[in-house]
Design a protein that fits this description.
alpha/beta, about 250 residues
C-alpha cells in the first residue's frame, strides 16, 4: 500500500515510516520539511495521489489551548478535504488515553477537537489512544523542579515507550479501519511521583522527589483516567528497563 505519514519526520512518525517500509509498503514522510504543510494545504494533493492510508502523528508546536486547537482543527480541515479528493480509505490518528476526561488541560481539549474532526470526516478511521510517553517523564520532572526537589503529584499513569507507540500505529495502518478507538499503554501502572523516584534511582542527579498533589499539569486527575480500562492493550517495554537501555 501507499501510506502517507503526516508528521513523518518526527519522533513517532520517522519510526512508523521505517516500520512500514520494512514491511514492503510505500511509506511517505510528509512534513513541512518535505514540502507538505497541513496548515496551509501546501503539497497535500500531490503527496496523497494514490494513497491508500494516511497516518497522522503530527503535533502542535504549542501546548497552549487556543494555539493547539487552531493547529489541529485547521490541519484536519485541509487534510480531510485532500483525503476525500484522493480517495483515501483509512485515516489513522494518534491520540491520548483519557483525553476526553481532562477538560482542564487545554492541549487535551485540542486533541478532542482533532478526534471529533476525524470522526466527522467521512473517511474510515482508527484512533489510536496511547499512554504518556516514557520520553516525557524527564521533561515533566524538569518543569516541576524547585532547587533540588522535584515536586510531583501521585497521579496514576500507564506510560509507554515511543517505539511501542510507533509499532501499534504502524500495525493499525496495515489493518482495516475500526471506526473507533484502539488503546495501547505500557505494562505497568505507576504513580507520577514514583516514576520520578525510579528515574532518579537509575540516573541520580542529586535531586529528590517531594509528593505535591498540586504540582504540574497532571495535578488532581483522578485514578483511572490516564490509565484506561480493561480494553487497553499492553505494550512489552517496562519503564525501568527502558531507562537502563537509554
Amino acid at each position: 500500500m501507499k501510506i502517507v505519514v503526516i508528521g513523518g519526520t518526527g519522533r513517532i512518525g520517522s519510526q512508523v515510516v521505517n516500520l512500514l517500509q520494512d514491511r514492503g509498503h510505500e511509506a511517505v514522510a510528509a512534513a513541512p520539511g518535505t514540502g507538505v504543510d497541513t496548515l496551509t494545504g501546501e503539497g497535500l494533493a500531490e503527496v496523497l495521489k494514490g494513497a491508500d492510508v494516511v497516518v497522522d502523528v503530527a503535533n502542535s508546536p504549542s501546548f497552549e489551548k487556543e494555539a493547539a486547537i487552531d493547529f489541529f482543527t485547521r490541519a484536519m480541515r485541509n487534510l480531510t478535504a485532500a483525503e476525500q479528493q484522493a480517495g483515501v480509505r483509512h485515516h489513522v490518528a494518534l491520540s491520548i488515553i483519557g483525553v476526553d476526561e481532562v477538560p482542564e488541560l487545554g492541549y487535551y481539549l485540542a486533541k478532542v477537537a482533532q478526534e471529533e474532526a476525524v470522526r466527522a470526516s467521512g473517511v474510515p478511521f482508527s484512533i489510536v489512544r496511547v499512554g504518556q510517553f516514557f520520553e516525557f517523564i524527564a521533561p515533566v520532572m524538569d518543569l516541576t523542579t524547585q532547587g533540588q526537589e522535584v515536586h510531583l503529584p501521585s497521579t496514576q499513569l500507564r506510560p509507554i515507550a515511543a517505539a511501542d507507540v510507533a509499532a501499534v500505529v504502524a500495525e493499525t495502518a496495515q489493518g482495516e479501519p475500526v471506526n473507533g478507538l484502539r488503546l495501547k499503554a505500557g505494562p505497568e501502572i505507576h504513580r507520577l511521583d514514583r516514576l520520578a523516584e525510579i528515574t532518579l534511582a537509575v540516573k541520580p542527579d542529586g535531586r529528590t522527589v517531594l509528593t505535591d498533589e498540586n504540582a504540574g499539569m497532571f495535578a488532581g486527575i483522578p485514578d483511572g483516567v490516564l490509565t484506561g480500562d480493561g480494553t487497553v492493550e499492553t505494550a512489552p517495554t517496562r519503564y525501568e528497563d527502558w531507562l537502563k537501555q537509554n
